[in-house]
Amino acid sequence: MSALGLTDVRDIAWADGVELIDDVAHDEKEPFSTVVVTPPMQGWALVVGPYFGLPFPQQTAHLTDVCRELSANFGKAQLFFHSEQNDGEAWLIAERGRIRRRWISEYPQLALGEPFGVERRLLDAYGITGKPEDLDPNSDLARDWSATWGQCWATTVAGESSIDPTTTAPDTVSTSGMLVAAAAPIE
To answer: Domain of life of the organism in this record (predicted)?
Structure first.
């Protein structure tokens, strides 16, 4: 919590935390103000909220620095954004203070690193030997890939790289409560 600069930390029931994140995500005045932190899940602490939304350009550089710093301190740190309304996919994977991959489907020009794992396998399946950010955006191949992001969703990348919270079995999660905290404003 302190490494993230979170303040005003308090307990919140699991169901209330889930509802709060949905409310915050739709708050036009302060969408980046609040995060919810889960108890450890399969060795990972999940920090959830729009504050960590890579597809918001005003957040990208700051979140990249945060992820890099967290990975330097804890070995690994990852950020994921998945939209069930097909609004985009994003992930940021850092290990030992280095960014391995940053991909933001809506802003391919902000990509860093080399595709690996499921992303690389799906690119290969589409016949894309390089990186999706290097494709001519007007090409048929780029349009085919971007129509579904090659079905390379953030939840799939998360499941392979760490944990997919959408498929974690309920018996592996403490449903007793979470923490809610105020996020530091991005400068």
So the answer is: Bacteria
**Beta sheet of 7-12, edge-to-edge order:** 7-12, 178-182, 34-37, 47-48
Bridge pairing between strands 89-95 and 98-104: antiparallel
Q: For 176-187, b where at least 16 C-beta lie within 10 A, e where not — what string?
A: eebbbbbbeeee
- Secondary structure element (H or E) that encloses residue 35, with its range: strand 34-37
Residue for token digits 């391995």? 100
Better-scored residue on pLDDT, 94 or 3: 94
Share of the chain above pLDDT 70, in %: 90
Please say if the pLDDT value at position 31 is more than 70: no
Amino acid at 82: H
